[in-house]
TrEMBL record:
Keyword Transmembrane (UniProt): yes
Organism name: Actinacidiphila cocklensis
Region (Disordered): 1-20
Top-level taxon of the source organism: Bacteria
Residue ranges with Pro residues bias: 1-15
UniProt keywords, alphabetically: Membrane, Transmembrane, Transmembrane helix
Name of the protein described by the UniProt record: Uncharacterized protein
Transmembrane region(s): 36-56, 76-100, 112-131, 143-161
Amino acid sequence: MSHDVPPPPGPPAQPPNSGVPSGNSFDPASVARPDWAILGIGFIVFIFSFFNYYKWEYRGLGINLSSTWSAWHFDHGLFIAWLAMVATVVGAAVVAISLFSPAVQLPQPARALSFLAFAVGFVLYLIAIFAHSDFGPNGGHDFSFWISLVLSGAGAVIALMRAQQTNTALPGPLASLPRIGK
């Protein structure tokens, strides 16, 4: 006597166009180019944080001395550049979470958080130009600092553009910023 037992039911099917990727169906082509730019900026700023943010050199009287510091050096007010880097990377990470893990609930819309993080990073980089110990005439900011400053500013502009393109409400007076991009 054989009993035909039906197989157990599978997971419920996703409704069409639910916006939730099913399984391994992520399509990189579905990500807008500005979003890839935001992700790339965060990655590049993180990588450059390990290179020279500050430098000091002395050459004279037969003596050659030099020293460099990355964003991961926290003495003498240099932590501000580290904090700027972290804010910039967080701005990119928020977009990554919204794209690759849409089920994760963020406290605010991802586009608004991304713009705010990039903007804070950019302002902190500007502050870091002036808020460190005096290196004297033989020292100052190095190439990674300047690249990160420019990239965080570009990230803020692109993140603002994406927030406006996706009709994301920005908080307070930021809501009245002029529209940029298409």
